[in-house]
Amino acid sequence: MKTIAILSQKGGAGKTTLAINLAVAAIFAKKKSAIIDIDPQASATNWHDSRGLENPVVVSAQPARLQNILTAAEESGADFVFIDTAPHSESAALAAARIADFVLIPCRPAILDLRAIGNTIDILKIAGTKAAVVLTCVPSRGSLADEAAEAVASYKIPLSPVRIGHRTSFIHSLTLGQAVQEYEPNGKAVVEIIGLYKWTVKQVNM
Fold first, then answer.
1. Can you tell me the distance from the alpha carbon of 100 to that of 165, in angstroms, rounded to the nearest whole number?
2. For every one of its 206 residues, what pLDDT tens digit does the chain have, with 9 covering 90 and above?
3. Alpha helices (runs of H) in 32-80, residue ranges in sequence order
4. Were both Cys, which of 16, 106, 182, 188 would link to 178 (CB 3.0–4.6 Å)?
5. Which long-range contacts (CB under 8 A, 24 or more apart) does 176-181 make?
């Protein structure tokens, strides 16, 4: 079993969106996945409540319970567990980073988000966990994403080659308790999520 934590000290970066869509992508790839929601806002948990389907399993928990829940997930045969974390909580982020095999850092191509990466990277240095930045909410036109990629390079942290676009299908699908693969199977968002899922799998050697 591999554990992927999704961290960002900046709110609105797309942590829950990535956790949900990657977990569903794993299911479509015939893997058993689960989400541990340690964000007090419980967005992933609320999504699961509106979903009406068991998979992926979503467990709302305190950071101190992470190890217990991961042990239970492994015993139940999970292949992947995605940890959805809260912004502005260094202790929770550190707990998730320490227990993860890999960390994804979602980041919008905006100056405040790019500056916030530094705080998350500081946490990762303490945890010593392998990580990469994922650009999210990328506009379909303009040079913002390329400029953001250059800014990320200054932090000396890997950048995912897959960028997640600013697409309404992410919003509509979550509202309906779905992932983009279920809401719009042939959409561009699906191509991006599948690409990110496959790339992430390679990072954890599965």
1. 26
2. 999 999 998 888 899 999 999 999 999 999 999 999 999 999 999 999 999 899 999 999 999 999 999 999 999 999 999 999 988 788 999 999 999 999 999 999 988 888 888 889 999 999 999 999 999 999 988 788 889 999 999 999 999 999 999 999 999 999 999 999 999 999 999 999 999 999 999 999 85
3. 43-51, 66-75
4. 182
5. 176/50, 177/47, 177/48, 177/49, 177/50, 177/51, 177/52, 177/53, 178/51, 179/20, 179/21, 179/23, 179/24, 179/25, 180/21, 181/21, 181/24, 181/25, 181/28
